[in-house]
Amino acid sequence: MNRFLIAILLSAGSLSLRAQVAERLQQLGMENIRTVTENGNTTIAFEDNVYRGTYRGIGKAIIAAMEGMSQGNLQMVVLENRIPQLCIALSERVVTEYKEKRMSIGEVYRQMEISHDTDEAMEILKGTHHTLNSSAGKVDIVVYPEVKLENSSFDRLYSYYVNLAPAVEMALWKGAELTAQVVLPIATNLNGQYKKIRPGVIALSQEFYFSKGFLGRVTAGNFTNNRMGGQAEITYRTANGRLELGAIAGGTVQSVLTDDEGWYVSRKLRMNAALKASVYEPRFNLQFEVQAARYLYGDYGVRGDCTRHFGEYAIGVYGMYTGGEINGGFHFAIPLPGKRWSRNRGVRVRQADYFALEYSMTTWGKYTNEKMGETYKIKPDENRSNRFFQPEYIRYFLIKEANKQITNF
Fold first, then answer.
1. Burial 84-111 (b: 16+ CB within 10 A, else e)
2. Contact present, 367 and 327 (Cβ < 8 Å)
3. Residue 57 predicted with pLDDT over 70
4. Closest Cα partner for 86 from 37, 31, 44, 51?
5. CA 379, CA 181: separation in Å to the nearest integer?
6. What is the pLDDT of residue 102?
7. d(Cα 392, Cα 214) in Å, to the nearest integer?
8. The pLDDT value given to residue 168
9. Angle, to 10 degrees, between the axis of helix 391-408 and the axis of helix 55-68?
């Protein structure tokens, strides 16, 4: 009888602890929350669809989870579209010393374990099927700014366009997302479709996590650069995130709005493929990328990028050699106003988190006439800041934010 009573009390305590941690995260607006408590230790998964960027929401979730703890170790899995991205582990000692104000939050970030290795934590979470504050079926209407400058003609200094491109984005089942975008022209000195309301990215994407650091994604639909078709990709990343390897293969046809035929879709299939590698240097927050690719119009080439991460700002340069031609340029992604976007209802309207732009130095001659180095994007929010879950990057800027708060105080 006594054993039975003890078991009931322990079970009730476990439920209470899980409820406290989950409730704290839900109050922040975190979604897809799942919790398991074993032997007094808590494992929790959550997804941040509230805060701009990656590290800001993670930092707030860590603080909230620790404040909801009473004992035991804490393990947190960070999700993106319900796919595991990061595992953060905090010992009972760290949690206790923080709650007793014997350890600063900056020191917590220094001592926490953070990596892409989520397999063990996800195995523990497999036992629970209850998800709190699910993102399934919730809709975002996101307004993206589009700007292009190109010095490719002799009769004008620049060809340009400025658009607003609102997109309906909806999470479906695990790993699946639907995007439907329309492009609204604001100003341009180009003709044809650039002066018309036209479709943007209209796509269905399915992501997979295969364990052991392997992820995959399959996407079909209408993409940027007037392409329609499908693309498959696979990525491997080490636990510390310093090395990533990947491969992409796609098949697309032309999709364009014309004056005569309306929305024209060609029958000529063009194949593109690439092998990619990325190395992250944590001391200076530098990301080095190299890829060997077959581009849309049949030219083969290599491209190298060097990107410096300044918190949520990403600024970089690139160089490429393709089809016997050399090109280069720069790119950047900068955060737009609005660090937090609450989602209390089924539909949320907000602006994009980032504005991204890439400038090419060579926009004339053979390189332009033969459309060398051409590719496309399968999502309207692809850039080097968004969804950047590199573990050492996140730790570095969490500590920097913590130190900044101390200085301001």
1. bbbbbbbeeebbbbbeeeebbbbebbee
2. yes
3. yes
4. 44
5. 10
6. 93
7. 19
8. 96
9. 70
Tell me if residue 331 falls in helix, strand or coil.
strand
Q: Tell me: the pLDDT tens digits for 333-376?
A: 999 998 999 887 778 999 999 999 998 887 667 888 888 899 99
User: Contact, 94 vs 108, CB < 8 A?
Assistant: yes
- Three-state DSSP class for 401? helix
Cross-strand pairs, 156: none
- How far apart (Å, rounded) are the C-alpha atoms in residues 354 and 362? 26
- CA proximity to 387, closest of 143, 226, 180, 215: 215
Tell me the β-bridge partners of 185: 163
Determine phi and psi for 325, rounding to 5 degrees.
-115, 150
Residue type, 209: Y
- Distance, in Å, from the CA atom of 123 to the CA atom of 212, rounded to the nearest integer, reads 13
Q: List 58's β-bridge partners, or say none.
A: none
96 contacts: CB under 8 Å, gap ≥ 6: none
List alpha helices for 256-390, DSSP H.
365-369
Alpha carbon distances (Å) from 227 to 14, 162, 352: 52, 20, 23
How many Cα neighbours within 13 Å face the side chain of 246?
22
Residue 222 bridge partners (DSSP): 202, 228
Spatial neighbors of 114 by CB under 8 A, at least 6 apart, are: 86, 87, 88, 89, 391, 394, 395
> 188: closest CA among 153, 144, 146?
146
- Chain segment 237-287, per-residue pLDDT in tens: 999 999 999 999 999 999 888 877 678 889 899 999 999 999 999 999 999
Among the listed residues 41, 21, 215, 45, the one whose alpha carbon sits nearest the alpha carbon of residue 129: 45
Three-point CA angle 18, 19, 23, nearest 5°: 120
DSSP lists the bridge partners of residue 272 as: 250
- The residue type found at 218 is V
Name the pairing type of β-strands 243-258 and 262-265. Answer: antiparallel
Token pair of 379 as six digits:
């999502």
The tokens 């130095």 sit on which residue?
361
Using DSSP's 3-state secondary structure scheme, residue 173 falls into coil
What one-character DSSP code corresponds to residue 285? T
Identify the DSSP state of 116: S
Instruction: Indicate the pLDDT class of residue 153, thresholds 50, 70 and 90.
Output: low
In this structure, the strands spanning 214-223 and 198-211 are antiparallel
